[in-house]
Amino acid sequence: MADDFELDTDDLTRRMDGAIANLRTEFASLRTGRASASMLEPVMVDAYGTMTPINQVGTVNVPESRMVTINVWDKSLVGKVEKAIRESGLGINPQLNGTIIMLPIPELNEERRRELTKVAGSYAENARVSIRNLRRDGMDQIKKAKADGLSEDDQKFWEAEVQELTNTYIAKVDAQLETKQEEIMQV
């Protein structure tokens, strides 16, 4: 019965790709001293009684390398958007100009850069944990097949496949972390 066992490595790969994509999203939200519209993605605004992403209450633009602007569509939400940005922990002080909120991106000092590299490290560690959990899922499937009569040679083959996949994705996480840390520390 277990002789025809085949681990769905495509599913594991797809799920590990998801962990990498999530890491990229988290990294994009880290401020590196350069303006980026994606840095506002985690900011939610209390609009009409529900928490709404900031890009759904206004147009987010990056007119220059150190400035982000938000053109709020509804004048009654300008104060709420400003408050959400102040409370987001981004360390940016919004400036109002009618319905346009300007966010000048200040230079990062050395201490803040070091803090951000630690935050990036924790995001990377979360991604590694996700990948290891997926590895464990794959290994559990193999153990179950072993109990159903999978040969020991086949078990070792599939375990090696899962481990190789895991090592590849852990290396991708490490490479992205290194790139992000270099970007943060760049003056």
Question: Can you walk me through this structure?
Answer:
By secondary structure, the chain is of the alpha+beta class. Helices cover about 55% and strands about 15% of the residues. The chain is built from four helices and six strands; from the N terminus they run H-E-E-E-E-H-E-E-H-H. The protein has helices at about 10-30, 80-85, 110-145, 150-185; strands at about 45, 50-55, 60-65, 65-70, 95, 100-105. Strands 3-4-6-5 form a four-stranded antiparallel beta sheet, covered by helices on one side. Helix 1 (about 10-30) runs antiparallel to helix 3 (about 110-145), helix 1 (about 10-30) runs parallel beside helix 4 and helix 3 packs antiparallel against helix 4. The longest helix has about 40 residues, at about 110-145. The radius of gyration is 22 Å and the shape is elongated. The model has no long low-confidence stretch (mean pLDDT about 85).
Describe the structure concisely.
By secondary structure, this protein is an alpha+beta fold.
Largest sheet: 4 strands, antiparallel
Distance between the termini: 61 Å
Q: Return residue spans where pLDDT drops below 50 for at least 5 consecutive residues.
A: none
Side by side, the strands of the main sheet go 3-4-6-5
Rg over CA atoms, rounded to whole Å, is 22 Å
Query: What level of helicity do the residues show?
Result: 40-55%
Average pLDDT reading: 87
Shape, per Cα inertia axes: elongated
Q: Give the number of helices.
A: 4
Strand content: 15-25%
Order of helices and strands: HEEEEHEEHH
Instruction: Compute the number of strand runs.
Output: 6
Give the oligomeric state.
Answer: single chain
